[in-house]
Amino acid sequence: MADKQISLPAKLINGGIAGLIGVTCVFPIDLAKTRLQNQQNGQRMYSSLSDCLIKTIRSEGYFGMYRGAAVNLTLVTPEKAIKLAANDFFRHHLSKDGKKLTLLREMLAGCGAGTCQVIVTTPMEMLKIQLQDAGRIEAQKKLMAAQAQLSSLPAAAAAEPAVERRPTATQITRELLRSKGIAGLYKGLGATLLRDVPFSIVYFPLFANLNKLGQKDPNVKAPFYVSFLSGCVAGSTAAVAVNPCDVIKTRLQSLQRGVNEDTYSGILDCTKKIWQREGPTAFFKGAYCRALVIAPLFGIAQVVYFVGIAEFLLDMLPKRRA
Description:
Elements: H1 8-38, H2 49-60, H3 69-94, H4 103-150, H5 156-159, H6 169-180, H7 182-185, H8 189-213, H9 224-241, H10 243-253, H11 267-278, H12 287-307, H13 309-321
Helix pairs in contact: 1-3, 1-4, 1-12, 1-13, 3-4, 4-8, 8-9, 8-10, 9-12
């Protein structure tokens, strides 16, 4: 069966609405994921998801869990819209005379979608990571200063860091553009491709096939709860599968480092240092957080996208004019 054709404006609106709803629901878990992935074997601030969220609320308040959310909420609309619409576009052009797509063609469609989305994903992640991780680095500096004071060293007072104002997304953007040009916003582009292309190759075919299991009639959409569960299962599976790439991407895109933390020159250098100094399990830091983020995010996204809220709204516009 050929996939039902939806107008491009409806696809973009559906994708945007899906992204906004999903991000609002799961952003605190995403913040914890970033902080857990970025901490190395030097000064470890958090031991788990719950520990990270509790300490964040204590030191930064409730809204500290949403640091960087404005960037995500602004850019997730085009990001999710491009991802979902691109997958539909490639599926349509890879189908032959309305016949069912083979698994290989479904994977190729997902590959195309993942490649297209990094245009928006890379700068969005770049800015979001700086804002999310700022609280961890600040807390680490305060802890080191407190430890120095307790040790009664003469230099303790001098070692205490000055209170710094946290940069905004606008300030970070201006500084990156001033110092490195547009390439500054696309730092980690290769690692983002390495994460998002395999993710889409796994996610879209898996979702499509799981969703079909809930269709009683090939010409009728699956119930919304089937689309939701299919999105959750496919999203969490793909998220865990590509988590090593996400750890590498997060480390490469972080501009600031904590005490005694490594710096990296590229993907291979980052992979080598993580393997040698933290062990293979470090590549799965934050994996369960990422699964908890992606599962509802893509579950909600697919429900909104498949229910077609935008189609309903667009259909209502002519009636209102009349």
